């Protein structure tokens, strides 16, 4: 997302890997996948109490200490992901979405239907879509880091060619990689708009 930000704001976030989110939410991930929900919608009063404690904190490090303690207390009694699913999700992450899903099925011994069902339950997405999302994140990181030209980004992210990457990027973000770069760097990032359109 490319957003206009206010001059002053306080933001604190925690990014959880799928197994951690599954454990923390204590609910099937398919119920929240693809949704933007308020913390209070998931945790109720506990979320309001966490927010109030963070608001009253005297600094950033204290806010992080409050949040990590809050998460740790909830994970102590949390259910854990199926080991084979956690391993498969980690393999997808390590390969930046490049591992063939058939290879994951062979390694885990799960049928295609069983692996998909478990992934929807514990990760929130079927394995193939999970791999596509991870690969999209890799492209996004490379673009943020200033990698160019776009054809090289596509090859480094294991796309067949740049148009394939552009189609995937547009499907996930609603804009092309070039449009993302132009919106992110409206006064230029060392590359002109014409160069981006040509790449």
Question: Would you mind describing this structure in some detail?
Answer:
The protein is mainly alpha-helical and 199 residues long. It is built from twelve helices and no strands. The model is unreliable at 188-199 (pLDDT under 50).
Level-2 CATH architecture of the largest domain: Orthogonal Bundle
> How far apart, in Å, are the first and last alpha carbons?
22 Å
Q: Low-confidence parts, pLDDT < 50 over ≥5 residues?
A: 188-199
Output the structural class: mainly alpha
Rg for CA atoms = 20 Å
Beta-strand fraction estimate: under 5%
CATH level 1 class label of the largest domain: Mainly Alpha
Give the overall pLDDT as a whole number: 85
Q: What letter string, H or E per element, gives the SSE order?
A: HHHHHHHHHHHH
Quick tags:
disordered C terminus, 3 domains, Arc Repressor Mutant, subunit A, single chain, 12 helices, mainly alpha, 199 residues
Compact overview of the structure:
By secondary structure, the protein is an all-alpha fold. Helix content is 62%, strand content 0%.
Q: How is the topology of this model organized?
A:
Elements: H1 18-25, H2 39-43, H3 45-56, H4 60-75, H5 83-94, H6 101-108, H7 112-122, H8 127-144, H9 150-156, H10 162-173, H11 177-184, H12 193-198
